[in-house]
Amino acid sequence: MAITIVTDKAQLQAQFSRLQTLSRSKPILDWKVRETQLDNLEAMLSDNQDALAKAISEDFGHRSVSETQFAELFPSFTGITHAKKHGKAWMKTRRASISALYLPAHNEIQPQPLGVVGIMVPWNYPLYLAIGPMIDALTAGNRVMIKMSEAAPQFAHAFAKAIAHYFSADMVCVVIGEVDMAEAFSKLPFDHLLYTGSTEVGKKVMAAAAPNLTPVTLELGGKSPVIVLEDAHLESAVNRIMMGKTLNAGQTCIAPDYVLIPRHSHVRFISLAKAWLQQHYPNIANNPDYSHIINDQQFERVQGYLQELPADSIHPLTDIVANAETRLLTPVIVTEPDADSKLMQNEIFAPILPLIHYETVDDAIDFVNERPRPLALYVFGNNEQQIEQVLARTVSGGVCINEVIVHVAQHDLPFGGVGHSGMGAYHGKAGFERLSHLKPVFVQSKLNGMNLLLPPYGDLFKKGMALLLK
C-alpha cells in the first residue's frame, strides 16, 4: 500500500520500492500529468500558506511571517508559474547537430524522467527548499520522496499533512524522523538525490549515496564573501549587505558571511549599519519582522564564536543584548577577526558580520581564493575593470553585482555550488535537465555509407582513412 507520510524505516523501504516499481512500469511521459502535479503544488501552497508560515515561526521561536512570504512563498509561486510556462517545451525531443560525414542521419536528444528523486530539506528555509526541488522533479516527470529536517518538526508535520491532502502517495510522499531516518533515506538507491545543508553533512550524504552510485546534487554553504570596491556607494552597499545579513537572522546559506573593504571605510560602515538597523528594525527585541535563532544548539554555537574574540573587536549595532531564553541574537559587526578564529573558519549562519581590510583588489581576490570556493560572492562598486577582474579570477556558485541573495530567485539562472559549497545546479531549465536523463539518439538514414567501413578493409577504405586522418 502506498504511504503518503512515512514515519519509520519499514515504511520508508516499502514506499521507495513501490515508487521505484511504478517509475519503471509507468513512466510519466505526458505533459498534462506533470502540469496537474504542478497545479496541485500551487493549490497546496495557496490554501496552506498561513498554516505553513505559522509552523515555521513556531519552530524558530519566532520567524517573521513577512520573511516567509518574501523568501519562501513568493519564489515558490513564481517557480511553479515559470515551470508551467516552459515545461512542455523543455520536455520535447530536440534535434542536435551532426557531423557532415554522417549525413543524412540525424541526432536527437530525448529528455526522460529519471524515476524516483529524493529531496533532503534543511531547517532554515524548509518551505522553499522543499518546493524548489519538487518543482524541478515534477516538471521532469519524476516521483518524489522528501525527507524533512528534524530541527523543524512543527513545519515537517504541517507540510506532510498538506502534501497528503493534495498528492497521491504514488507521486509524492513526505518522510518524517530523526537523524537515523535521514541516514536511512540517504542510503536508498534513488535515481537522483538532492541535499541542501552543511558541508560536513553533505560529505556523509555523498558517502551514503556512493555504494548505489546514486547521482547527487549537493547545495551546501560556506563563507560567501562581499568585496566592497574603493568607488562603491557605501550607503547603498550597507543597505543591501545588512538586508542580506539580517534576513532570517543571518540563517541563510547565501547570506553575506564577511566583508572585504578598505580599512578607512570601517568606521563609516559601522555607523551606517547602526543607523540602518535602527531604521529597519526599531525595538528589535519585540520586532515582529526580526527572526530568532532556530534552537539552543545554534544559539550557543554562535555565542561561542563571539566569546573567543577580543572585546574591542566586537561592535554591537543596538543596545539590546542577546537573549538566550528567546534565542534573540542581535546583529554585531566584528572588525579584523583572526583568520584562525572559529568565526572565520566556519560558516557563521547568524547576524554577525566580520569586516576585514584589504589594500588592493588583488589582495581581496587572493583572500577569497585562499579559502574554499563559496556558494555566493558579492561585489559592490562601479569600476567595471575591477568587477571583471573579480569575476575572472574567482570561482563561486553564483555572483551578484551591487546586490546580495536575489540571484537565488532568478528562475532562468542555475543555482548551485562548486567545490566545498556543493555540486550540481538546479532551478528552471537547469533543474529540469538536472533531474532528467537527456538521452542521446542517433537516427540512421536508409541511404548511408556505413557499409563502406566494413571489413575486409581494402584500398577504398584505406584511401578514405588517409583523408580523414590528415
Task: Offer a concise description of the structure.
The protein is of the alpha/beta class. It has helices at residues 9-25, 31-60, 65-90, 128-139, 153-166, 179-186, 199-209, 234-246, 266-280, 296-307, 342-345, 361-369, 384-393, 428-434, 459-468; strands at residues 5-6, 94-96, 106-113, 116-120, 143-147, 172-175, 192-196, 216-219, 225-228, 258-261, 314-316, 332-335, 352-357, 376-380, 398-401, 415-416, 422-423, 425-426, 436-443. The strands form 4 sheets. A 7-stranded mixed beta sheet has the order 1-6-5-4-7-8-17, with helices on both faces. Strands 11-12-13-10-9-14-15 form a 7-stranded mixed beta sheet, sandwiched between helices.
Q: What can you tell me about this protein's structure?
A:
The chain is α/β, with parallel strands linked by helices and 470 residues long. The chain has two domains: 5-220 and 422-441, Aldehyde Dehydrogenase, Chain A, domain 1 (3-Layer(aba) Sandwich); 225-416, Aldehyde Dehydrogenase, Chain A, domain 2. The chain is 42% helix and 17% strand. It contains 15 helices and 19 strands. Strands 1-6-5-4-7-8-17 form a seven-stranded mixed sheet, with helices on both faces. The protein has a seven-stranded mixed sheet with strand order 11-12-13-10-9-14-15, with helices on both faces.
